[in-house]
Each structure stands twice: as C-alpha cells, then as structure tokens.
C-alpha cells in the first residue's frame, strides 16, 4: 500500500496565524484529497488537490481559507489561514490511484495533523 | 438530505465474540461502499469494500453485507480481538468515476477481556 507522511504531526498555533501542512506519498498517485476531522467526529472532505491546477473545494470550504498546492504527483500542501479556535481539528490527506492501489477506488490515508488553535 | 449514518455510536463486545456494526444510507443511487477502521492517533485504514451489485463480501475475519432494499450495510468481525478496538466508519462513493468519499458518523468498538 502507499505510504503517506504528513508534517507536522501536530501543532499549537495562535489565532490569526496560518499553518501549512505537507503531505508526501512514496509513489505517484492520481488523486490527492484533504479532509478535516473535528474532535470526536467523522471526516469531512475539504477539497481535491489537482496537479497543475486549482483545487476543487467542497461546499463550505473556500480557497482563501484553505489554499492548496499540488506541484507534482507525490506532494501536496494545505494551508489553514487566519486561524481561529474553530479550526482546531485533525487534518488528513488521502490518495487514490497509482501502482500501489490494492483494489478498485481504494483510498489510503495519512496519519493526520492534529491542530490546536488558542 | 443525503447521508450515510450509523445506528449506534458505541459497541462493547466480549473478546472472542463476533461484532456487528451497522450503517444506513439514504441515497439509493449509491453504488460503492467502504468500511474503514481508525485507531487512536492514526488515519482511517481500509478494511473492505462492496459494490452495489453484490450483497455479501468476505475478507479475513470480516464480512460486509449490503441490503439495498432497506439501504443497510453491516460489518461483521469474527472472533473479535483486542486489536479490533477502534472507531469504524462506513463510507460511500457515488458513481464509478467519482472519487469523493462521504463518511458516516462512526462507531467506537471496545473489547471486554
């Protein structure tokens, strides 16, 4: 299976600041996604990171708040901008499609970045 | 609205017994379902999937059952072990080419020794 790493694994930030989270995959993948998981809750898709073009955002998420980059087929970043305590969550990247996909449409998830905003 | 939801938020099972985790979905157009396991401090891990043209699929110690008539999905874990303690999510994809996953609310499975 694809091996996904995220940096940082956790951070504590002050409100009004921004944090950029990195997602690195050990093989080229077709699709990369960013999810948010608020404490004790399920995962919500933020956006699809498109290589070489602007990300596709889900309802309720906007580029100004969550700018995303995907410069190549193995790397993506998510920035949480102008943070408030409501942004405290786990942010996860996932990948799909590529040589290490075990079954149809299988998505692999990274370990997540735990963000606390004070 | 459309949703994928779970019947019970928590489940406690005796070690060695079988576990059954249930999930309901509301969109009859849903055609692909996945079960994920999430251990504390980790990302979700793929367990098993099933297409809407099937009603049962088996893996190692796990079985997924799909009842399209009542829009119900279940995950059965045989001979539950301490390592099965986790939160289990059912998830849904709509459309063979769509990659967006919609997650249910999750069930926490705890194992009694």
Helices and strands in order:
The complex is a heterodimer of chains A (118) and B (113).
Chain A: E1 4-7, E2 10-13, E3 19-25, E4 29-37, E5 43-49, E6 56-57, E7 68-72, E8 75-80, E9 89-98, E10 107-109, E11 113-117
Parallel strand pairs in A: 2-11
Antiparallel strand pairs in A: 1-3, 3-8, 4-5, 4-9, 5-6, 7-8, 9-10, 9-11
Chain B: E1 4-6, E2 10-14, E3 19-25, E4 32-38, E5 45-51, E6 56-58, E7 62-67, E8 72-77, E9 86-93, E10 101-103, E11 107-112
Parallel strand pairs in B: 2-11
Antiparallel strand pairs in B: 1-3, 3-8, 4-5, 4-9, 6-7, 7-8, 9-10, 9-11
Can you describe this structure?
The complex is a heterodimer of chains A (118) and B (113). Chain A is mainly beta. Chain A has a single domain, classed as Immunoglobulin-like (Sandwich), CATH 2.60.40. Chain A has strands at 4-7, 10-13, 19-25, 29-37, 43-49, 56-57, 68-72, 75-80, 89-98, 107-109, 113-117. In chain A, the strands form 2 sheets. In chain A, strands 2, 4, 5, 6, 9, 10 and 11 form a 7-stranded mixed β-sheet that branches. In chain A, strands 1-3-8-7 form a 4-stranded antiparallel β-sheet, with no helix packed on it. In chain A, a hairpin with a 6-residue loop joins strand 5 and strand 6. Chain B has 113 residues and is mostly beta strands. Chain B is built from no helices and 11 strands. Chain B has one domain (4-112): Immunoglobulin-like. In chain B, strand 7 and strand 8 form a beta hairpin. In chain B, the strands form 2 sheets. In chain B, strands 2, 4, 5, 9, 10 and 11 form a 6-stranded mixed β-sheet that branches. In chain B, strands 1-3-8-7-6 form a 5-stranded antiparallel β-sheet, with no helix packed on it. Classes of the chains: A mainly beta (118), B mainly beta (113). The interface between A and B is medium-sized, with 25 and 20 residues.
């Amino acid at each position: 299976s694809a091996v996904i790493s995220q940096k940082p694994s956790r951070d504590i930030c002050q409100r009004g600041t921004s944090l950029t989270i990195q997602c690195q995959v050990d093989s080229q993948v077709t699709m990369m996604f960013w999810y948010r998981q608020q404490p004790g809750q399920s995962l919500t898709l933020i956006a699809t990171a498109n290589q070489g073009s602007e990300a596709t955002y889900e309802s309720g998420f906007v580029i100004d708040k969550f700018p995303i980059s995907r410069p190549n087929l193995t790397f993506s970043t998510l920035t949480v901008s102008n943070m408030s305590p409501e942004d405290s969550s786990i942010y996860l990247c996932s990948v799909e499609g590529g040589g290490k996909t075990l079954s149809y449409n299988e998505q692999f998830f990274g370990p997540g970045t735990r963000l606390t905003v004070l | 609205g459309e949703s994928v939801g779970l019947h019970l938020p928590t489940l406690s099972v005796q070690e060695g017994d079988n576990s059954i985790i249930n999930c309901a979905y509301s969109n009859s157009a849903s055609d692909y379902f996945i079960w994920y396991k999430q251990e504390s401090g980790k990302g979700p891990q793929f367990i098993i999937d099933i297409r809407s043209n099937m009603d049962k699929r088996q893996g190692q110690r796990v079985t997924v059952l799909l009842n399209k008539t009542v829009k119900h999905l279940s995950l059965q874990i045989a001979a539950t072990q301490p390592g099965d303690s986790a939160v289990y999510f059912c998830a849904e994809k709509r459309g063979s080419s769509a990659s967006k996953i919609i997650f249910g609310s999750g069930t926490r499975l705890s194992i009694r020794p």
